[in-house]
Write a structure and sequence with these properties.
The protein has helices at 7-10, 20-30, 37-51, 55-66, 104-126, 136-142, 151-172; strands at 78-79, 84-85. The protein is mainly α and 173 residues long. A two-stranded antiparallel ribbon has the order 1-2. The radius of gyration is 16 Å and the shape is globular.
C-alpha cells in the first residue's frame, strides 16, 4: 500500500458524510453481486462518520486492494478487504491473529485507522513543506522505501473522483 500519496484527498475536513444508500450504490456499481453491499455500506458509513473520512475513499481503497474479497491474503502479509499489513512495525498486535482481519468490521476499522494516521502525519508535514527534503513523500525515501511508480495511487484517486462525481450527479438528478 502506498497510502501516504493520497494525502491530498483527505487533508480537508469532510463537510457531510454521504448516506448509507449512496455508499451502497457505489459498492454495487463496483463489486460482484455476491458481495454484501448493504452490510459493507453500513460499516463504512459508521467508520467514516466516526473518524471524519470520506467513505468513497474507503470504497475506492477496498476495491483496488481486494476487489471486495474479504478473504484476500497477499504474499506480503496484507489481509482482508483493505489489505491491512501486519508486521512488527505495522499493527503488531495482530501478529498470530491475522485471521481477525477477515472480519469486515475489524478490517475496515484498521483501514480507517491507517487513513487517520496518514492524515495526521501529512497535516503536520504540510505546515513545514518549504524544501524537497521536508515534503512528506521524501521521508519514504529517507526510510529506505522506494516507490517505483504510483499506479496504485492513481487507480485509487481516479476511482475516488469517479465515485464522488457519480454521487453528486445522483443528488442533483
Amino acid at each position: 500500500m502506498i497510502w501516504p500519496f493520497l494525502a491530498t484527498l483527505w487533508l480537508s475536513p469532510l463537510a457531510d458524510v454521504p448516506s448509507t444508500q449512496a455508499i451502497q450504490a457505489a459498492i454495487q456499481s463496483l463489486a460482484p453481486r455476491r458481495v454484501p453491499a448493504k452490510k459493507y455500506a453500513r460499516i463504512i458509513h459508521r467508520e467514516a462518520r466516526r473518524r471524519n473520512i470520506d467513505p468513497f475513499l474507503i470504497v475506492a481503497i477496498i476495491h483496488v486492494e481486494s476487489s471486495w474479497n474479504s478473504r484476500a491474503k497477499s504474499p506480503t502479509a496484507d489481509w482482508g478487504l483493505g489489505q491491512v499489513h501486519v508486521s512488527k512495525t505495522s499493527n503488531p498486535e495482530l501478529i498470530g491473529k491475522e485471521y481477525l482481519l477477515f472480519d469486515p468490521n475489524i478490517n475496515i476499522d484498521y483501514v480507517v485507522k491507517t487513513l487517520v494516521m496518514w492524515r495526521a502525519y501529512h497535516r503536520r508535514c504540510a505546515a513545514r513543506v518549504n524544501t524537497p527534503s521536508q515534503h512528506p513523500w521524501w521521508s519514504h525515501y529517507q526510510w529506505g522505501y522506494v516507490v517505483r511508480d504510483l499506479t496504485w495511487s492513481k487507480k485509487v484517486t481516479a476511482l475516488y473522483h469517479a465515485l464522488r462525481q457519480r454521487a453528486i450527479l445522483r443528488v442533483v438528478a
